[in-house]
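cron nightly-structures :: item 1 of 1
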Amino acid sequence: MMTLSYDVPGPSPAASSTTVDDRSTAFQPVEGGTEHRSGEALLVGAYGGLWLILMGWLLVQWKKQGALGRRVVELEALVQAASRAPTRPAGAARPEQTP
């Protein structure tokens, strides 16, 4: 049987002497960090990406709407052509069936 050991270090002696006031949640800037990214650049990039996605989606929808409109016009023309075709009596033979 396999036993698992979770060795988690306990609080350091220095941490146990701190009070709630010492652990405040105020922002404290860190000097000398290795990563530097501009918040403004990230924000502009995020908005730009969202705008590109939105414009691409709108372009696709516009093309689909145009294709659908053309198909509706085509179908309306077919329906009108079929309604103008002469009707034959129910007992009449088709022209291609005559000997």
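cron nightly-structures :: done
The chain has a mean pLDDT of 80.
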